[in-house]
Amino acid sequence: MTYRSNAIRAFSALGDPTRRAIFESLSQRPSAVGDLALQFPVTRSAVSQHLKVLKEAELVTETSQGTKRIYKLDPRGLGAMREWLDSHWARTLDAFKEFVDNQPNEEIKK
Known about the structure:
- By secondary structure, this protein is α+β, with helices and mostly antiparallel strands.
- The chain has a single domain, classed as Arc Repressor Mutant, subunit A (Orthogonal Bundle).
- It has helices at about 5-15, 15-30, 35-40, 45-55, 75-100, and strands spanning about 30, 60-65, 70-75.
- Strands 1-3-2 form a three-stranded antiparallel beta sheet.
- A hairpin with a 2-residue loop joins strand 2 and strand 3.
- Helix 1 crosses helix 5 (about 75-100) and helix 2 (about 15-30) crosses helix 4.
- The radius of gyration is 21 Å and the shape is elongated.
- The relative contact order is 0.16.
């Protein structure tokens, strides 16, 4: 998959407010599903479903610690999003430069 499709998948995953809040919580510290469920007005099962979507978008990873699965941010998804944004930003700057270069030079009359 290209960075573009990975970025689109990541942006789409973060389009849900609860999912975005879970992502933001994980940006503060890795957490288990149960700990995350205590922070939000949704069931543990719903948190697991949100985490599944975030994992598929490469925004989080999971590791096992005993019987718990600990989730933390995955830099691959953020990297794809940044690369996609950077490509648009570069084109925007190029277009702005072209616009400025095509403006007539007018001297300020004193």
